[in-house]
Amino acid sequence: MMEETISLQDLFRTLKKRLALILTCIILATTVAGVVSFMLMTPVYQAKTQILVNQTSAETEQFTSQDIQTNLQLINTYNVIIKSPAILDLVIERLDLDLTASQLTQKIAVESAQNSQVVTVTVQDPDPYRATDIANTTAQVFEEEVPNLMSVDNVNILSPAITSDNPQPVDPNPVLNMAIGAVIGLMLGVGIAFLLEYLDTTIKSEQDVEDVLGMPILGLVSPIPDSEVNVDEVVRTSRRRR
Predict the structure, then answer these.
(1) Same domain, 195 and 110
(2) pLDDT digits (tens, 9 = 90+) for 24-33
(3) Model's pTM, two decimal places?
(4) One of this protein's Pfam families, by short name (predicted)?
């Protein structure tokens, strides 16, 4: 049983032969990704506010590295409290949001850098101004409620969220989506090209004959141009044979 091998020349020949198909797939996939990004997907805007976990001013003189470590340990707890119904229910009430605490939780992300006392609250919403309001109100409510929930007063708003004059959505990213679409189109086009080449069993060259029959080519019959064919001579020869 003969093993079929494909050389680099065969690969490039196939790609060149199906170049129009591949380009069509790329253009089509990129266009679809662009249409979906610009016309079908809802823009989402983002707002951030930062909260500083620290000691109160009255305790500043006794502030030690142990206090910092204690605050860092509290941050993980604060991250959970910020997204808890105890905080979000008050946010919903103040802003009169038509959302449940569970739905609002999906819009809020809370994170802090390693060994940092700063907690960042990020809010994403289709309305850039509402995203800013939610971020700031969440920080304010959290700052007010922490003394009641934890019996400590070591939270301050470091940087409130603001809405720029020309807010830009963070999602969708049309350029990224179109780039991904182009890559998918390229992969799809190349795949279809090689599939069509694999399914095409017609014999087009001497190499195809050798590959199919497993025998070397001994000779070729060259085509005779029509201009060199004497029609009258062919007719007379045919009549003589009869």
Answers:
(1) no
(2) 999 999 999 9
(3) 0.65
(4) GNVR
